[in-house]
Amino acid sequence: MQALAELTSMQVGGVPASIQVCNTREQLIEIAKTLWASGDDWITIGGGTNLVFSQDVSNLNVIQVKTTGIEKTVLDGKQVWKIQAGVDWDELVKQTVDAGLAGIEGMSGIPGSCGASPVQNIGAYGQELSDVFLRAEFLDYESGDLVILEPKDLKFGYRDSAIKRGRTGIITWIEIELLDLEGLSRPLYSGQIAGALKSEMGKQVKLTDVRESVLALRAAKGMVLDAKDPNSVSCGSFFTNPIVSDSFARTLSSDAPRWETQEDDGLTVKLSAAWLIEQAGIGKEFSLPGSKAAISSKHALAIVNTGGATGEEIAELARFIQERVAAAFGINLVPEPNLIGFAN
After folding, report:
1. Residues with a known catalytic role
2. Domain residues of the chain, as ranges?
């Protein structure tokens, strides 16, 4: 049987108790219900890009989601796409751009499968899944029922959702709404993309230009899966950018990157986790003595497997980063990937 290191972008993880591959929605539902009835430990894997596994996963049963298929309809004049959970996210983005439809072009290059996209409300360069999300079919672990989840049920937040916060189950498909803007993008909400395209915030540009710009920016940071780039042996951004109060943000030096956000309790500020890491004394290519886990040479926010690292080494470096940032700034960095099989 395969080790999970062979099924994940971080390339860590031992051999599980079982791996069951689901090529259809019906298989996925049947296998999940059977496994749940056994009471054994389980997890689903799509692209394996947001998971860090321990070497000891011998009691874990893996459901590998490889379902495919996209249904495209026009509903009340709106473009609605229903996508099976196993579809590769970036392939979906490419198809929308090729079709001249706007809405997710800024999320080009994000690795992983579509079924995982609502779990942490994926996003980049001014766009989030919640901007286009309509609903998802969800096999609920507690009841065993198939239910339809709408945005109000998922309670989306910044890289967050009700599923990430503990609602257990499996997404079988998602449905999104896209815009026909005659080949143009949504208004630009990313200063980086606007700058790269020599445009302005709020302007619309060609969809293809946005996609190409995003892919180039992500590649420069080692955030695009590429067999030729050792920096892509990672989970991408390892920590979310922390959101703090405006008053706290004012205590930081003026050169700290920051973006104002609006929460229910008032004005907040999103900080750059990469800046905090570097200011805490952890630079690119940093590694702990004897460890094969390291900070990317391209971006301080990515932890990479330099060759033969274990999940334990990845987790150890992540904890070290958290401790250094907490000591320097009093901020607890929250990991984006799920760490599986490690002692708390």
Report:
1. 159, 237, 336
2. 4-65, 70-220, 230-340
What number is the average pLDDT over the span 270-286? 97
Domain covering 4-65, topology: 3.30.43
State whether CATH 3.90.78.10 applies to domain 230-340.
yes
For the question of whether the overall pTM of this predicted structure is more than 0.85, the answer is yes
Residue with tokens 């791996």: 19
Determine the CATH number of domain 70-220: 3.30.465.10
pLDDT digits (tens, 9 = 90+) for 58-104: 999 999 999 999 999 998 778 999 999 999 999 999 999 999 999 99
